[in-house]
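HUMAN: Mind sharing a backbone?

ASSISTANT:
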Amino acid sequence: MGLSVNTNVAAMNAYRNLATTNNAMSKSLERLSSGFRINRAADDAAGLAISEGLRSQIGGLTQAVRNTQDGTSVVQTAEGALSESTSILQRMRDLSVQASNSGSLNTTATSSIQKEIGQLKQELDRIANTTTFNGTNLLDGTYNKAFQVGANAGQTISVAIGSVGKGMDSSGLGVSGVDVSTVAANAASAVTTNAIVGTAGSLAITPSGAAADYTSATVVQDPTRLNGTISYQGKSFDLGSVQYTAGNTNAQNITQLNAAAASALGLATGATPFAATATGVKFTAPDVPAAGASIQTLAADTPTFTQASGASAAITAIDSAITLVSSARADLGAKQNRFEHTINNLNTTIENTTASESRIRDTDMASEMTNFTRTQVLTQAGTAMLAQANQSTQSILKLLG
């Protein structure tokens, strides 16, 4: 090849190889400093797409673990409350067995037993209506939710506690009428309820008078002889649990009855749902559902009455309630175990998916350091050879001299 001043092919070749080596070393430095084999789509387009898909799964699975842990917390909260409900029912059963021993108890003793049972029923209602998780009621019969326990749509576990209109309160458990102080049918037995007129897709209410009422034909303005339970807006009131002052007039007894009802049913202070009539005592619901109200609102605003059970029947009713609560607790315990197995499975899946994503996206530091050392040596050699190639044309000056 001839000697040329304008075109130094050897220098051009050395420069091209040096540029390629510099580019490779720059990529090695980027991978070593970031820890990622893929820093941009151009590094591995297919690998990037696969890696992003795996990252979505990892993020979804990680959130699913937290969701499932929330589910465990919800179940534990509900089961803990039901555990106390079981204790209450067991105490009510003991009291009912005690009250059944009529050979040694007089009317005053059974009335005292009933007062404790009345308070226990109110506590059952309070637990059912106030047990919540993040503002959501758990035991009032409305809880039926799904927990997202997977990274993809439809991967859920549902939890239902009770059913609509049948929560874990005294009414839903069938013990609202437990009354060990009498074996006779409740005096307040004549019931007039709201007339509900419904059409497809809508509901309208036509109240009977002002609202639902309960009228006794056999109790002549004497509330002390009332027994049984009135349930209203998720709470219950045991008519036999009122502590009347000895020597009261019937009017004074009505005042005490109203005060006790307002407290038990959560009514406004001074509310007077009970009133004496010409033939007895009448309960009038304070709220009248508006036209178009939901079925749940109608059910809550329409009071219901349960006759007194008597001591013997109380034992049977409470046994059924204990069985119902125990079944609900068993179901919640099974759901908790299922949640725990789900968490273990999710954590294993996260581990394996993360390992797969790492193989695609992360830098193999040992291998990359080997490449970096190689390109570093080539860069030094290329720089030296470019200098030599630039000096090679100096020999032409000898010819010119």
In short: Residues 185-307 form one domain. The first helix runs from residue 9 to 34. The mean pLDDT is 81. DSSP finds eight helices and 13 strands in the chain.
